[in-house]
Amino acid sequence: MPAFIKPPTKIPFLLRPGLWLSDKITGKQLEVPRLLSWYPKVAVSSAVMEGLVAHRDKNLSERMLKLVRMQASFSVSCPFCIDMNSSEYEKSGVTSEEMAALMNSSFSESTHTFTQREIIALEYTRLISKSPLAFPSELIESLKQNFTEREIVILASTAAQVNYWARLIQALGVPPAGFSGSCQLPEE
41-66 as b/e, with b when 16 or more CB fall inside 10 Å? Predict the structure, then answer.
């Protein structure tokens, strides 16, 4: 199913290098940046945000941030986001069982191999992705005991970034791009 609208037939000249870079990085001709070409300001601001989001940090591993992106994608039931953020999850050390646990928000069950820090980050991500926003004081205390202020900002901004893309992508009707070959939505 195609997006709700078509990209402009003439892409603004200043956006063309960004589209080329997006195609090169992803190995695909993504519809999203082309659709954003209708309003260059949002195309540029979205590209800047995407370029500056954390994918690894000295204290937050690539795995941790991948888990956060995947949990946010599942929490907002965004097929495109699930497809993109879940692709090659094994390369970040995420198992199939952990993937299933994320999909169903059952990551806190003791049968999974998530660390205590990961469970706290995943619960925080799940709550960031819900409306209305509500954060139990116990979770915030646990978050503050297990993460530095800097790490909390990175976790929150990573989850919020996925939420931004999910809302924008779903509002434009953009289908999955085929990164993972699968984009199962969580069971209700």
Answer: eebeebbeeeeebbeeeeebeebbbb
